[in-house]
User: Which sequence fits this backbone?
């Protein structure tokens, strides 16, 4: 009787694995870039090395709801902001150094945005300064969660992945301001924003992006996952083995 109950329990777990796999909405994406192509800071370029590229992953959920419009919080108008689970767990490494944001980031969607008239999509780990400001957002409304790294006199402060019509593609790639079902498949740009370690909130008033390093050739691809039935088949195999042993015992 105990063996029969064990077999039934395994079958139930197998069925639940199939159900959970089918219902899961968030998708893990891997990304990588070519070598960096631009930075206004020659010292950072030398520290990172001319052959450095960035690679990592993030979780993307196209079903996340709209959080607010950019103009409602003082940013440039025309962007739809998704910060309630649209992207999370942004992580990566460059030049042997690693970073991770263990919580939610933000996705900004601009369909024919009023400021540029073009489409653009940006995945951001942490908040960035508003237009005309140099100090970074602070306080409970703008939590900074990126666990960066220090290199020389600099500390990694933010990570941004962008696709922009007219810069990274000639396509008008957005139909509206909704979250795309999947991130763009064409090349994008990745930016690493650094601040001086001695001035983490940029109180000296230096333009925030003066220590930004840009990497081209950004590609994003869904991480390989087991087939939905793989876990169920494995458990079913164990259940079958248990049944054979039961018959042998009988």
Assistant:
């Amino acid at each position: 009787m105990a063996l029969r109950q064990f077999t039934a329990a395994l079958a139930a777990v197998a069925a639940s694995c199939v159900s959970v796999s089918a219902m899961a909405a968030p998708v893990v994406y891997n990304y990588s870039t070519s070598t960096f192509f631009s930075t206004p800071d020659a010292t950072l370029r030398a520290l990172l090395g001319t052959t450095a590229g960035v690679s990592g992953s993030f979780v993307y959920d196209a079903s996340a709801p709209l959080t607010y419009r950019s103009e409602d919080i003082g940013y440039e108008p025309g962007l739809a902001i998704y910060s309630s689970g649209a992207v999370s767990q942004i992580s990566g490494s460059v030049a042997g150094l690693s970073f991770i944001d263990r919580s939610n980031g933000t996705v900004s969607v601009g369909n024919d945005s009023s400021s540029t008239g073009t489409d653009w999509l940006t995945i951001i780990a942490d908040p960035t300064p508003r237009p005309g400001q140099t100090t970074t957002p602070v306080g409970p409304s703008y939590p900074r969660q990126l666990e960066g790294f220090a290199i020389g006199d600099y500390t990694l402060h933010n990570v941004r992945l962008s696709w922009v019509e007219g810069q990274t593609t000639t396509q008008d790639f957005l139909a509206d301001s909704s979250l795309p079902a999947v991130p763009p498949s064409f090349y994008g740009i990745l930016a690493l924003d650094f601040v001086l370690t001695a001035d983490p909130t940029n109180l000296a008033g230096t333009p925030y992006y003066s220590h930004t390093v840009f990497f081209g050739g950004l590609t994003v691809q869904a991480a390989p996952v087991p087939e939905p039935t793989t876990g169920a088949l494995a458990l079913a195999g164990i259940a079958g083995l248990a049944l054979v042993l039961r018959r042998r015992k009988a």
